[in-house]
Amino acid sequence: MFYPTFRARRIRGNETFRRMVKETTLSVTDLIYPMFSAFGKGIKKEIGSMPGIYQQSIENVLEEAQEVFELGVPAVILFGIPEVKDAIGSDAYAEHGIIQETIRALKKEIPGLAVITDVCMCEYTDHGHCGIIKDGDVDNDATLELLARESLSHVQAGADMVAPSDMMDGRVAAIRETLDNNGFSKIPIMSYAAKYASGYYGPFREAAESTPQFGDRRSYQMDPANRLEAVREARMDVEEGADILMVKPGLPYLDILRELREEFDLPMAVYNVSGEYSMIKAAGLKGWIDEDRVVMETMISFKRAGADLILTYHAKDVARMLKAGNVIY
Ligand code: PBG
Ligand code: ZN
Known about the structure:
This protein is α/β, with parallel strands linked by helices. It has helices spanning 15-20, 58-70, 98-109, 140-156, 171-181, 202-208, 228-240, 254-263, 274-285, 291-305, 315-324, and strands at residues 31-38, 44-47, 50-56, 75-81, 114-119, 133-134, 137-138, 161-164, 190-195, 244-248, 268-272, 309-312. Strands 1, 2, 3, 4, 5, 8, 9, 10, 11 and 12 form a ten-stranded mixed beta sheet that branches. It has a two-stranded antiparallel ribbon with strand order 6-7. A hairpin with a 2-residue loop joins strand 6 and strand 7. The longest helix has 17 residues, at 140-156. The mean pLDDT is 97. The protein binds ligand PBG and zinc ion. Residues 120, 122, 130, 165-166 line the site of zinc ion.
């Protein structure tokens, strides 16, 4: 392929050709919108570090979810901010917990919108860790039981899919077994398979009020330096019965996404996390970047790296841009 016989620019010469040879596409059905449901009434509190994203009480979650649904986004993933937190995260698996009530309301009002729930303890524990504390560390096996209970209670409330984000060993198997034993063998599990201990979760912890009160999450979330470990983590989840694998965060871990895409034949999801959102928003608001363009470029980078699904706070904006057809992806 030598110049001048070959000229790479020929095929880029006009918009029609560019569209015809596009290798990767983005569709509204690739998107999952994260939402924060807070206990109470009349609450709609913008997250300081995430312009456009709110902690809201159920009636406001419903209103925004309706908008999300009308934009064609097929699914939301829910995070809860309970009335009270305790050492064992009781609200996480309470029949009338914040998430359980939110799921019921959503499935009643907007049955066509898929409801996925984040399964973890950190939003519900007073210490902010993703499980039960024993001797100053999260106890893996004691936590498994609670995660299984939490998943079951979400599904009993009507959740269409559960997404464990805790990074305990064996959680997919524990959840699968509990769901199956209770008649929910049809409910899929999207596992946060490769979840790194990341500074990019900072704004989320403000949104979910889930900052660890001591220490950090490095005894259960992955070291950003590790690639092979991601393959091992994903393999465990596949063998335990995961239906969809997720990589998180997104942009700084596109290599991991590609790696897992090559290695496994399950659908792949990527979480474009809070810090990634905040950076684009902040630069966009300052006029330092063209926000719409950078958002769409970011989305297509996930698809190109191998994602089938993108969890993103930009979902509504992306859906609007796709609808308007003003962005070519
Ligand atoms: C709960 C959870 C977190 C995120 C998703 N689920 C936070 C964390 O692990 O600290 C982060 C999402 C984001 O930053 O947007 N374990
Ligand atoms: Zn957690």
